[in-house]
Amino acid sequence: MTADDDRDRITRLQLRYILADALLAGIGPIDLREVATAGGIPVQPDMTESELREAIRASNAAAARVAGVPIDGLPRLTASQAHDLARWLSGAAVSLDEPG
Questions:
Q1: Residue 22 neighbours by CB distance under 10 Å
Q2: Angle at the Cα of 28 (from 67 to 30), degrees rounded to 5?
Q3: Are 57 and 21 in contact (CB under 8 A)?
Q4: Alpha helices of 25-66 — where are they, by DSSP H?
Q5: Per-residue b or e along 64-82, where b marks 16 or more CB atoms closer than 10 Å to that residue's CB
Q6: Where are the domains of the chain?
Q7: b/e for 24-55, b at 16 or more Cβ within 10 A?
Q8: In sequence order, what are the residues at sequence separation of 6 or more whose Cβ sits closer than 8 angstroms to the Cβ of residue 26?
Q9: Nearest to 50 by CA among 20, 29, 70
Q10: Which residues neighbour 15 within 8 Å (Cβ) at sequence distance 6 or greater?
Q11: Which pLDDT band holds residue 100 (cuts at 50, 70, 90)?
Q12: How far apart are the first and last CA of the chain?
């Protein structure tokens, strides 16, 4: 693997991390429990929505760090910004005039 390949891999993983983090904002409490459980995160019956989101974020951050992906200082996106970024990454046209 060349240095450019490694940088590209890290950039892709950083983008995935940013998108996953932004998507958490739009997930309701029942789905958050399912996401946490599917990710192997211990879920307590009395966990609040905020606690579930934070547990998932912490798990995602730990996984990124284990993979050697620097995530400190990455921006947090709104759901709308994440949608635009995902469309752009997929090659879909993203109009700057579209309401977010």
A1: 20
A2: 90
A3: yes
A4: 29-38, 49-66
A5: beeeebebeeeeebeeeeb
A6: 3-90
A7: beebeeeebbebbeeeebebeeebeeeebbeb
A8: 79
A9: 29
A10: 85, 89
A11: very low
A12: 39
**In which residue are the tokens 């547990």 written?**
55
Q: pLDDT digit string (tens) for 18-52?
A: 888 888 888 888 899 999 999 999 999 999 999 99
Instruction: State which H helix or E strand residue 100 sits in.
Output: none
Burial class (CB in 10 A: 0-12, 13-18, 19+), 13: middle
> What tokens were used for 33?
């429990």
